[in-house]
Write a structure and sequence with these properties.
This protein has about 130 residues and is α+β, with helices and mostly antiparallel strands. About 20% of the residues lie in helices and about 35% in strands. Strand 2 and strand 3 form a beta hairpin. The longest helix is centred in the C-terminal third of the chain and has 8 residues.
């Protein structure tokens, strides 16, 4: 199971990567495998300020539809528009081209409560 050490994770199976003063967010390899073939990603929250735990979008797979949750409070400053035409990028490259949103966090130190790779691996039984 692919769990990059340089990322932080949520219990909702999202990954978080700090890039300069922004936070890049996507779903984990575990999550995309559980969902199966991703057929649609809907994110209409660009420009909105949301609280940690709020839904910022949905992801639809052949098996199910799942909400996407904010890992930290902040403003959604960009969405991955490539997913509109190629949602399968989430399956093919969940930690790269399959990213979902960029967030300007209200407080970068809020990331400290997220899981590290070892703790996330324990959560999913890897």
């Amino acid at each position: 199971m692919q769990i990059p050490e340089n990322l932080r994770y949520t219990k909702d199976h999202e990954w978080v990567k700090v890039v300069d003063d922004l936070v890049l967010v996507g779903i984990t390899n575990f999550a995309q495998k559980e969902l199966g073939d991703i057929v649609y990603v809907e994110i209409e929250t660009e420009g909105e300020t949301l609280d940690e735990g709020d839904v910022f979008g949905t992801i639809e797979a052949v098996k199910a539809v799942s909400d996407l949750f904010m890992p930290v409070s902040g403003e959604v400053v960009a969405i991955n528009e490539a997913l509109e035409d190629a949602p399968e990028l989430v399956n093919q490259d969940p930690y790269g081209k399959g990213w979902m949103v960029k967030i300007k966090p209200a407080d970068i130190t809020a990331l400290n409560h997220l899981l590290d790779a070892t703790t996330y691996a324990e959560l999913i039984g890897a």
